[in-house]
Structures are given as structure tokens and as C-alpha cells.
């Protein structure tokens, strides 16, 4: 097969245009073309009035070899790479000491799946509840201001990405095509087929819930186990080697292979790991607000007369500004046609995030706009000082909102002018359980406020209306990535604790659903290599 890249066609091209373009590009007769399939479809919207679709195509012809030779100097004509997944091995029997995976986020689920597929019968432990019960608890905070600190947006089956926009793209290097395996598995578990070929796939919350359940059933069917409401409170380490874990009810599970795929909000578990002497270091993350604009404004700005086109969908954006005070401000986790959600996992705190449904048809676009911060900004030199800062800011936001999980918010115009907000304009906030208009200045450190005040007008130059008076800022966005890294070596084990495999976002090795899932596959392979005695590849 031949892979053609950078095949450009108009947005409104007809069905036959792809085939015609292939024949023209390869200079072959129709009779020589056997098959064409779309591997990827993106778009180029730099000219709003002339938006093109950009295809990557897999083509089969009667003369593949000759064509590859003829186009040897053309980087856009290459042999289709073998992207099929290769297991590192298979167990011949269920091991006496089964591997333990902590966490059922995308990372833990993919560690569990791959281990189960290799016959290693993992035991997966999750502090939160199964996804249907968890959904009720999560809505409990959004609707009734009742937080369940063990079952919420951060904790429970599916992990942090379950109530989300379900964006499935990442900029990680992926020479072994692990991302492809993840997308194929997602489709097997109920995701729409299009995630395999659109350049920025997303799933949305409702579909994610069903997929997560299907994935669990598969793991169980393959001999794995998924146990809910089983928080790991202690890791047992003897002479630098993991021996097992202690659960919240005091029971013990023995294993010499324990994966910590605990996400970035398991603050108590990070504390336990530090106290047990597992190597942890502080790492940079970002803080800021969620901003909401009308989605129609973003669509008009990005797509002009093509706004509303079905192929393009609701427009997204990505912005960055380097400030005079040395800070960088950037947009993050943009949710087209979505809502802002309450995302705390601890009582007395307010944290924002965003989600959407597959249709992305809510009236507002939302995104985090955040300022990068370094360990030198943290209140102390402790490895967990980033968590102390997060807690402090989240508690401040809770107080500013009035102390009942209402989030503090301000209109962009007032924020830029430094005056408290009193009433909404055209943009209505989507955050549940509700917002209180106020002055957001006390909610973040001075340098962050200064950077945001410089960045928003700069963003307005890229997206007209970004700094509009009535756009809404809701505070605070603090759980952008893990504030710690659980450093690991080339065998994916902690650098000072054998058998402890830090994984995913919480360990500081992923950010986002796809990259966490890919990291899960890599860690699962590493566990299998260790258990099956397979050497690490170069
Ligand atoms: P997590 O998903 O955080 O999973 C960790 C799991 O471990 C949790 O279920 C937790 O309960 C469990 N756990 C923690 N401690 C223990 C313990 N001691 N014992 C037992 N279990 C434990 N990313 C995207 O790519 N696209 C998006 O659209 C997107 N939207 C998001 C929207 C929201 C509201 C949120 C909160 C996040 C969003 N993200 C998105 C980020 C994404 O969800 C995370 O990057 C991803 O979930 C990280 O995966 P993970 O498996 O490493 O950790």
C-alpha cells in the first residue's frame, strides 16, 4: 500500500474528487487503482473564505512498487507503515502473584487491558465508584452542592477524563503507533469510527460513560478484575522492592508489580508515597481561569462564511502569549460548545474544568487560560509544595464564591479594568452549581493576574472579540497537570523502588486522555516484560 500525505481538496468537494486527485497525483490510469481509504482528514482554515480539507490517504494500485520507486524523492508518497500492534509476550498461566494496577483512568484502564490481553490477569483497584453510580455523585455537586470526596469528577471509574470533551489528540512522539492501538480499542468499546480518521477526534461525555463500562467488561472477560471503592492507603516496600498494598479497610494484597496510575488529584496517595520514601520531585504546572465566549463568535472568527459547516463542526482555538514579566499564558483544554464544570475532589475548594457532549452544541465555547508556574513559585521547597499552592488557591476561590461551591467569576472587561463585576452582559455562565460575580484579583498570585491582563488583549488580536467586555472568567483552574513527577527509569519502574511503576498523568508522564492511555500501554508492556522475563528493547 502507498500512503499519500498533504492531499488538498476544497471543503465542498464531491465524492469522486478524492479518486480523481489520487489518479492525478500518481499519474496513473483509473484501471490501475484498486482501493483508496482515508487515513486522516484535517483542514486548513488559514483562509476563512477558502477552507481546504487535507487528507492522508492509503492507496492500493496494480503497480505499488513501481510508483514508490518513481516517487522516491517525494516525501508525500511513501509505503504505508505497518501500524499493527505487537504484544511483547503472553503468559502461559495466571501468575501466582498477579500484577496490581491502581486507578481506572485512561492510563490504568489501558495498563489493565493490555495485561489482561497478555494473560496476566491484573487486579485493578479504584477508590471511586463504578461509572453509573459515580455519575450520580458527580451531578450531586453540580446540582445540589454535595461533594463525595471519593466519587466525583476526578475519582471513579474512567478517571478524570470521563466527564469531559473527550478530546483524543496529543502531540506526543509515537513511533510505535501506540496511539493507533488506543483509538482502535476505543472504537471496539463504542467510540464513533470517525475517531480513526479525523485529525482532532473527540467523543463527549455520554459516549465515554458507555465505553468505559465496555472496557471493564472486556478486562473481566479476559481474566482481570476491577474492584471499586478500594482505595490504596499504603504501599508495602521491603529493601527497595514493592511487596504489595494495604487497602482502606486494612486488608493486604501481595504483588511485586504495582502500577500507580492515580491521576493528578490523589494528594493523599502522593503524601503516602513521599512518606514511604518513593522518589518524587516537584514539577511545573499552570494556574488561571476558565473563560467563556459565545461559540458563534469563535466559529465566525475561525471559519467566516463556512461557520456551521458540518465537517468543520464547532471551532476550537489554541493561543499562547509570552508576557513581559517572563511568564507565558496559554489556552488549554478548549471545549467547543461545552460547559464549565466544578471539578474539586476535596471539600471546601473550588476548581474549574470543561466538558461537552459529542454534539458540542451548547451556546458557549470555554477554555482554560493559564499561566505557567515553576517549583520556584511554590510556597516551600517540599516536593509536595505544588499541592500546597493548589489547595491554597482552591480554598481562596471557595471563600470568594461564598463558601458553598459557588465559583467566583468576573467579566473580562471588569477584570482588565480592575473593577468588580456586578451584572452579566450577553454571555451567560454555564458553571454549575453557579457563580458569584466579584473581583478575581485576590484569587491568584499577582504575577499571574498581571500576565493574564496582558495576554487577554493580545489574544483579542488573534480572535476578534476575545477581550469583549462580557466574556466571563470563572476561577480557579489549578489542576492543569500533575504538580509532581514520580521519576522512573528505562524499565518504567520508580528510580528507587523496584516493582513500583509510576504511570500516566499523576506520575508526570502524560497529559490528556490519549497520552495517558498510550503511557498505560507502555507501562503495561514494561510490567509484562518484567513478569515474563523479556529483555527491554533498544
Ligand atoms: P486519571 O484519569 O486521573 O485516573 C486516576 C484514577 O486513579 C482515578 O479514577 C482515581 O480515582 C484513582 N485513584 C487515585 N488514587 C487512588 C488510590 N489511592 N487508590 C485507588 N484508586 C486511586 N483530557 C483530554 O485529553 N481531553 C479532554 O477533553 C479532557 N477533558 C477533561 C475534562 C475534565 C473535567 C477533566 C477533569 C480532565 C480532562 N482531561 C481531558 C484530562 C484527562 O482526563 C486526564 O489527562 C486523564 O484522565 C489522565 O489519566 P490518568 O489515567 O493518568 O489519571
Mean pLDDT: 96
The low-confidence parts are: none
Number of domains: 3
The helix content is: 25-40%
CATH architecture label name of the largest domain: 3-Layer(bba) Sandwich
- Helix count from the secondary structure assignment: 12
Major sheet = 7 strands, mixed
Sheet with most strands: strand arrangement: 14-15-18-13-21-19-20
Oligomer class:
single chain
Give the full name of the CATH homologous superfamily of the largest domain: FAD/NAD(P)-binding domain
Strand content: 15-25%
Distance, first to last CA: 28 Å
CATH topology of the largest domain: FAD/NAD(P)-binding domain
- Ions, cofactors, ligands: which are bound? flavin-adenine dinucleotide
How would you describe the shape?
globular
Pfam families: FAD-depend_C
InterPro entries: FAD-binding_protein (IPR028348), FAD-depend_C (IPR049516), FAD/NAD-bd_sf (IPR036188)
Protein name: FAD-dependent protein C-terminal domain-containing protein
Domain FAD-dependent protein C-terminal: 284-480
Tag the structure with descriptive keywords.
single chain, 538 residues, alpha+beta, Alpha-Beta Plaits, FAD/NAD(P)-binding domain, seven-stranded mixed β-sheet, five-stranded parallel β-sheet, globular, binds flavin-adenine dinucleotide, FAD-binding_protein, FAD-dependent protein C-terminal domain-containing protein, FAD-depend_C
